[in-house]
Amino acid sequence: MKKAIMAASVLGLAGVVAFIGEGVPADEPTFAKEIPKLEEIEAEEYFSGHDGTFVLHNLQQDRTFVYNHERAEKSFPPQSTFTVANALIGLETGAVEDEYDIKYWDGIERELDVWNKDHTLGSGLRHSVVWYYQALASDIGEEQMQKWLDAISYGNRDITGGIDQFWLSSSLEITPLEQADFISDLYYEVHPFSKDAMKTVKRMMIEEEGDHFTLYGKTGQGPDVGWYVGFIESGNGTYAFVTNLDGTSAHAKEITLSLLEEFHLMDGPS
Fold first, then answer.
1. Are strands 206-209 and 119-120 parallel, antiparallel or unpaired?
2. Same domain, yes or no, for 95 and 165?
3. Per-residue DSSP letter, 36
4. Sorting pLDDT into bands at 50, 70 and 90, what band is 7?
5. What is the tens place of the pLDDT at every residue in 33-72?
6. Which one is catalytic: 48, 75, 80, 249?
7. Is Chloroplast among this UniProt entry's keywords (predicted)?
8. N or C: which end of the chain has fewer CB within 10 A?
């Protein structure tokens, strides 16, 4: 019964929304930078004893649902979720030309077989190829990287951990609520990047296209944290989401998909 009430509460904000095609934002809300009203939801059973948080932002109604508000306001290294911002900055500064911009494998064997080959900006994001995005960050350089992290107010904006390390269990940290804001602004293309850059990165984030939804996402994982962030366009509305827990990114994604299904965000219009 509690699940049904929670799903009805989330869906009740969506209203009747037509399916939104890739790259075509819903009607834009007013972006007044004020403290949002956060509505608590129950999701403890999905986290299986892990300390975690789930943030779900209704992009049409500009309302945010949160499980475990306390953790949602804590800062964590973004890990490979930072590839989204890294790619945007790389495209904007000309460090890469497009999603097909290739970097050649250096021959060093790394822990994942999929990393041990040449990669493009797009494949590097999809497979969390750390060496590709380390090389990209070095090509961008500290001055431009700092400029753009300041411009988009990304977390604590701290890159002192080193140009090819700062987002990997190092100096840069961001809260799950800040991640939700960053993803929401990317969806609406209101970041200070070119529209082309933002459309390209959103296209790179597509993970699944169903009959009634398109899922965009990015995982990230470190020694003590797992992330899954993104947004979903569906017949029941468009929502940004962030899952963060003291576990793996695979578990974060699994939890996210279960909750999106629970809220009928992968179904046809209801």
1. unpaired
2. yes
3. P
4. low
5. 444 578 999 999 999 889 999 999 999 999 999 999 999 9
6. 80
7. no
8. N
